[in-house]
Amino acid sequence: MASEQAPTPISELSLDDGGASAARAPRWRELLFDRVVIVPVLIAACLAGGLGVGLATLRQQVLNSEERMLAALSAALADQADNALAAAQTAMQATAEEIVGGAWVPDTVVAGAVLRARAAALPAARQMLLLDAQANVLQAADEELEEPPHARADYFLSALGAAPGSAHIGAPTVWPGQETPWIPLSMPWSTPHGRHSGVIVVAADTALLLGGFERRSPAPDARLRVLRTDGTPLLESDPSSGWPERAGTLHPPAGVSAWTQIVSRPGDDGRRHDLLLAGHAMQRAPLAVVLSRDTQVVLADWHLQAWLVGGFALAALLVTTVLSLRHAREQRWREHSQRDLQRQRERAARAFAAAREGLWEWDPASERHYLSPRMRELLGFDASASAPPATHALSWPDRVSQDDRRRLREAIDAHVRERTRDFSVTLRVMPPGQPPRHVRLRGQGLRDAREQLLLLAGTAYDVSDEVAVSEAARRLDEQLQRARQFEALGALAGGVAHDFNNVLAAILGFGERARALAPEGSALAGHVQHMLSAGERGKTLVARMMAFGRTGQGLRQPYRPRALVQEAWTLAVQGVPEGVQARLDLDAEDPELVGDGVAFFEAALNLLRNAVQAVGDRGSLRARLSSETVDQPRVLWQGSLRPGRWLGLRVEDDGPGIDAEHLPRLLEPFYSTRSAQGGTGLGLAVVHAAVRDAHGAIDLRTAPGEGTTITLYLPLPEPAAAPMAPGVEEAAWSGQGEVVLVVDDEPALVALLEEHLAERGFEPRGFSDAELAWQAFEAEPGLFAAVLSDQAMPRLGGLELIERCRRLSPGVVTIIATAYGGTDFGARASAAGVQAVLAKPLSWSELDAVLQRLLRAPG
């Protein structure tokens, strides 16, 4: 056996990125970001942070404990003050009731004894007075005490004239000869006859409200303050402390009996201090008891612990950082050389991954493959399992179709045979349990010295997106070509229908005149009627041709939907199998709609035919035409219903239904769920266009296996005014000799129109050549009252003729009669000054109504 060719050595490209730094020692600044340093430091920092969280928790616990203690003490002091106020109020109430009841009379020995007894029984009471309405003292419990003036005191003024039994509290007042202020309490009293006569006053020491705070004070810095409900201070335990000024104005919360809060206020040392406040509202008076402590004092022990713990944590963090830096510096020396090599490998791996290409090799001798991880992913193999052997490169029957395997084999054989540089082929890979994908293979063969194939190697990448874009472009091109064919066919149909309409117009027009002249009930009248019926059917056929080649002229004519639905039903159910149950329900009401009746007919016919095709050989379908009143806005599958009256055409079948994946594209032109059965995809597109032009909506209810129900909604016009009384008819209207210019390239139609207009009292001037008609109008523009013209005429079209006429005579009435106006004819006619557009074949009643509306002067 011949010796194998030695493999060609492969040189590796080395990228120089400053690798010379391996020779120098790492810097301390670089080591700060090393993982060996960061991890221990982070752990130490986390421990220090845990200590900090513990300290913060302990601080909050200390504050919470102090808050609870202050809250309990404030509640106890408030209850004690309430009890003292209740006793004072009871004593004053009893005194007032005894005076009213006549038990004793003021300014008597008995009155003095009563006041002294009750003042002695009250806690902290220093004086009890009985004042008259002029603030004169009628009776005093202690006759020796000097009295302050009462006439202008707030406790006297607030109680004088107040409701009986109402108690009042005044501002602390320093009485003559006293060092501390007393708290005055007052209540009105009346004579036995019910006349307000004065005020009862109880003067009490501040202990009445402060209670035993001095004995119960939790700490030397604790302060007690009594506030009114509006936040103004009434009393404080230590007025010399300056606490009211530091705390500022405090407003007890409304509707809350107890509260705690922390306020920040400047202290005596010029720095801001946090004050811990706990308040409790009193029940007997509109007052609140507020206790406070300086948080600096409360947290004094905690601050000492925080300094000790913080110092320990900082020292531990510093030691950990130093030891970690030393360890990292030693490790950096060992890893520096390996890092350079690792960077090169990482660059190569990143470049290969960025390409998103798989690497493959196939050994013909062993029939074994080597597949890179990306290649395994492309082919759908498990990352840990080895690829099974194959008799040819990448030819697994469960993943690549027979046709693709044949193309791959042909591409490789051509590459080996013709010695091309490489080969390329795109395969459709179908991994089990995964969606299919398209993979493009590139490769080349390696040969030995005898030119024998040793190895096939190459790359592969996913081109599913490219193939999808190419396929979408191909389908769009097919749709475009199909749309152009339909557009050309529609234009042809419109032109043919136009010419055919001219013939029909002559047949129907002269036929109507012949029927009018034929004796009623004669054979001639019957023959003429058969001719007119055939002409009407021809008119319907032409209308359908125009609907196929519709160009958006936007004609709006009155029509009755009931007859159109009946006719569409007759055409749709012709020849249905016996196993199909078909039912049509028509509402008794048949409203008149204004719009495109042909479009409505085509929409109904398409819906009915779709239902017949969905049912197949056995099943049921039902159609119902009815009106409905909508009270609230309603959002449907396509469009929405506003409040008002609507006409609904519902078509339902029990066929297979429609899958949800088809619903978003159901109204797209050329999209069909029955392409294999010959569906064109135009049916529902025609339905959608007709409903959209009529400002309607579509509702769809369907599910696989549950049938389909489609409802078309068209707006109904508002009810017309009440009709005239029976027997009263509007007098027939006729012309007054107005000259009407009649232009049509069909001489028979010109003659027919001239005859009809002459019978209606007009003076027609007919032309079958638009240029001659223009010359006649240009010669005498003031002669003509109206212009009635066809649109599609040689040399000069109807719109151009009307534009010329309106430039010479702006007031002339202009009417276009056409069966085919081209693209956006409605908008172009309005821009040209056309006042009315009539559809061919003409209806004499419609023509008469338009002339009457445009020519008759308003009454």
The count of DSSP E runs of length 2 or more, i.e. the number of strands, is: 29
Oligomer: single chain
Beta-strand portion reads 15-25%
Largest sheet data: 5 strands, antiparallel
| Alpha plus pi helix count | 21
What is the overall silhouette? flat
Ends distance:
119 Å
What would you report as the Rg, rounded to the nearest angstrom?
54 Å
Point out poorly predicted stretches: 1-23, 676-681, 721-731
The helix content is 40-55%
Mean pLDDT: 79
Characterization of the model:
- This protein is α+β, with helices and mostly antiparallel strands and 859 residues long.
- It contains 21 helices and 29 strands.
- The strands form 7 sheets. It has a 5-stranded antiparallel β-sheet with strand order 2-1-5-4-3.
- β1 (125-132) and β2 form a beta hairpin.
- The longest helix is centred in the N-terminal third of the chain and has 67 residues, at 35-101.
- It starts with 27 loop residues before the first helix and ends with a helix.
- Mean pLDDT is 79; it is low at 1-23, 676-681 and 721-731.
